Amino acid sequence: MLLKTFGWSFAITVIGLVAAWFYGGWEAFGVVAILSVLEISLSFDNAVVNAGILKKMSAFWQKIFLTIGVIIAVFGMRLVFPVVIVAITASLNPIDAIDLSFNDPDRYKELVTDAHPAIAAFGGMFLLMIFLDFIFEDRDIQWLRWIERPLAKLGKVDMLSVCIALIVLLISAMTVATHAHQHGGGHVDKAETVLLSGIAGLITYLIVGGLSGYFEDKLEEEEEREHEAEEEAKRSGKKVSAVALSGKAAFFMFLYLEVLDASFSFDGVIGAFAITNEIVLMALGLGIGAMYVRSLTVYLVRQGTLDDYVYLEHGAHYAIGALAAILLVTIQYEINEIITGLVGVVLIAWSFWSSVRRNKALEAEEGKSEVTAGV
After folding, report:
1. 266 Cβ contact list (under 8 Å, min separation 6)
2. Membrane-crossing residues (predicted)?
């Protein structure tokens, strides 16, 4: 089971590390290995959230997610996206950005450093919205009830998450402007960059959310049609072509999953800039990590882990919220990437431990009920 699910990930790991060694020796080998671990640690929340959607899909579409979906995730978000970031922030075309990364790494590093406030503001706002929309939703299962209950009540206020995100963005931009003014620097325009990039991140999230909602609605429509067709078939005694209907529903779910997967890729890509500025090493390391994340998603589904450990999804979203806060703080202050990775791991481990305790408590209650019934 383990080899079947992670087989491609193991193979890509070997190929990627060998390619890194040929490209830049043992130093490049080490960088790619670190990036792979970073991507896995930062994107474990990605796997948990994705698994909640993927578990509704058939084995065929799970394979599609691991094949065609990988092309989108690895080559689209992990290779093209870093180049686009540098190209946009440095006002270059993508070809010049790639050329610069190979032929003038010092200048390229300078451009990436200058682009960090824009990257952090964009990514921070995007991830903050994911967290806020989750935490303000009223849920049957709550993990940290003392936080989630009052926030779920507040979540009934329309557009509250957008308002809070904009307030956080304004505070971040004002902090940057105040710091520049106090130190007599000529970087007040950095505050404008933070503000504009943050708004762009917010708009991107709203667009992605709109598309996701569209795909969800389509999926629900297809499932409802399938159910009605099956009921009609039972009444008339005819067979129904459930495969075609399931195929449509699964297709919309696949599109929805890809939109979400792309949105979660920002943290790993942005975090990678703190370790290396070389496009080739970044693509190799993040690509390997992305393969493991996708395999882990399928593994969680097939093992039924999310159903057994119900707080994992909560822990993943809290990790996203923490990462959003860290990104916004790094606009002005430097934070070690080890801390960034560990925060997510700790929160998810905590939610896993809480799930285990919950399961044990439920088993104990069932045991008591059985004893009482027997008496």
Report:
1. 122, 123, 126, 127
2. 5-23, 29-53, 65-95, 115-136, 157-181, 193-215, 240-257, 269-293, 314-332, 338-356
Measured CA to CA in angstroms, residue 230 lies from 221, 243, 282 at distances of 14, 11, 49
**pLDDT at res. 335:** 75
Q: Look at the pTM and tell me if it is higher than 0.85.
A: no
Kindly give, in sequence order, each residue whose CB lies less than 8 Å from that of residue 178, ignoring residues fewer than 6 positions away. Answer: none
The predicted-structure confidence for 126-144, as pLDDT tens digits, reads as follows 888 888 888 888 777 778 8
Measure the CA–CA gap between 72 and 81, rounded to whole angstroms. Answer: 11
HSE, side-chain direction, 13 A CA sphere, residue 226: 16
Identity (one letter) of the amino acid at 297? Answer: T
Q: How far apart are CA 220 and CA 276, in angstroms?
A: 43
pLDDT of residue 287: 82
Residue keyed to tokens 């009934």: 156
Largest CA distance in the chain: 82
Question: How far is the C-alpha of 189 from the C-alpha of 159, rounded, in Å?
Answer: 29
CB 12 within 8 A of CB 291: yes
- DSSP secondary structure letters along 9-43: HHHHHHHHHHHHHHHHHHHHHHHHHHHHHHHHHHH
Residue 142 identity: Q
Task: Provide the pLDDT confidence category of residue 242 given band limits of 50, 70 and 90.
Answer: very low
pLDDT exceeds cutoff 90 at 213: no
